[in-house]
Design a protein that fits this description.
Layout lengths: L5 H11 L4 H14 L3 E8 L2 E8 L6 E2 L4 H8 L3 E3 L12 H4 L6 E11 L2 E11 L7 H23 L11 H18 L2 E9 L2 H8 L1 H18 L5 E6 L2 E8 L3 H9 L6 E2 L5 E2 L1 E7 L7 H18 L4 E3 H5 L1
Parallel strand pairs: 12-13
Antiparallel strand pairs: 1-2, 1-6, 2-3, 4-5, 5-6, 7-9, 7-12, 8-9, 10-11
Helix pairs in contact: 2-5, 7-8
Length: 320
């Protein structure tokens, strides 16, 4: 699925992207232990079902409600359909009535959650003939499902920050490059906002590192609530956060980031009100890549700190 928004870019690559040899191998094993010709690892994240791994069959992305996997996730337990063509719940699905002609389906639902990021997935085997699974085959499939869930969690954990649950620095770097490639192709404006917690060292020194972690976690929660659902939220390290956002316009997003610090104030127990300072920039055609965009946002952040902490500054204002 070609990414068109930052949300799709990061989630498609990390959650639903294909080409993972470990997960590909599980689909091959699933066909071997069940004797069925086809196997899929499907991801259901939002309104779309897409294949993360395939063996013996290629299934394009489709609305989740038009899939066996959606019913499997809703059931919350293994779903076995001996003959889909004679089952009124599934007979009209494109996979059954179309060229693939799927008749047999057995799927395991998997829920994956790391920090603030969660999604549903399934491991399933299919056949173009009616069928069933023996008890031993079903046990093997369940074991593969447990291994798949472990792999999905481990790979998601490697892309997220363990304190806040937001995306980490490595994911930020990869995502910004991908977003800028989309921007050059489509003309979509990419915005970057860098945020620092004001006087964070003083908070750690005065109240302890546990309190410092709670500040970071609270800021992550406030950011998630305040920012658009399709923005990409990252912790870069220490007290540094970043928001990536793609939109068709510039003025509305610039104004949003100008007001963002006022939405992120947080009182630490009986202590001080914690504030953040922000710097914002958007990608322009004269920028050679990610580094100039990051530098522009960083310059705006530095200027905001110089003027008044707890506020925001846009690079556009500096360049005016």
């Amino acid at each position: 699925m070609t990414p068109n928004t930052p949300f799709e870019t990061v989630r498609t690559r990390i959650i639903g992207g294909q080409g993972d040899t470990d997960i590909d191998a599980l689909t091959v094993l699933a066909t071997a232990v069940t004797g069925k010709p086809y196997a899929l690892v499907s991801v259901l994240d939002g309104p779309i079902r897409w294949s993360k791994a395939e063996c013996g069959i290629s299934v394009p992305p489709a609305p989740r409600e038009l899939s066996f996997c959606s019913a499997c996730v809703e059931a919350g337990e293994i779903l076995i359909v001996d003959d889909a063509a004679s089952d009124p719940r599934f007979a009209s699905l494109p996979a059954v009535s179309g060229r693939a002609g799927i008749r047999f389906y057995a799927g395991l639902p998997l829920h994956v959650k790391v920090g603030n990021i969660e999604f549903d997935a399934t491991l399933c085997v299919l056949d173009s003939a009616p069928g069933r699974l023996e008890e031993g085959q079903l046990d093997h499939l369940k074991r593969l499902g447990a291994l798949l869930r472990f792999l999905l969690i481990a790979k998601l954990a490697a892309a997220t920050d363990h304190v806040t649950g937001l995306w980490n620095k490595r994911t930020f770097d990869e995502t910004m490059k991908a977003m800028l490639a989309v921007s050059r192709r489509t003309g979509t404006a990419v915005h970057l906002c860098l945020l620092d917690v004001d006087h964070f060292k003083t908070i750690n020194d005065s109240y302890g590192h546990d309190s410092g972690d709670r500040v970071l976690q609270s800021l992550a929660t406030l950011l998630t609530s305040a920012c658009p659902a399709d923005s990409v939220l990252c912790r870069l390290g220490g007290d540094e956060f970043a928001v990536l956002y793609a939109t068709g316009g510039r003025d509305a997003a610039t104004e949003f980031f100008r007001k963002l610090p006022s939405k992120l104030q947080y009182r630490l127990h009986e202590g001080p009100v914690v504030s953040v300072t922000a710097g914002h920039a958007y990608f322009t055609e004269d920028m050679a890549g990610a580094a100039p965009l990051f530098k522009a946002a960083d310059m705006a952040l530095y200027e905001a700190k110089r003027r008044q902490r707890g506020t925001s500054c846009s690079f556009r204002d500096l360049a005016a």
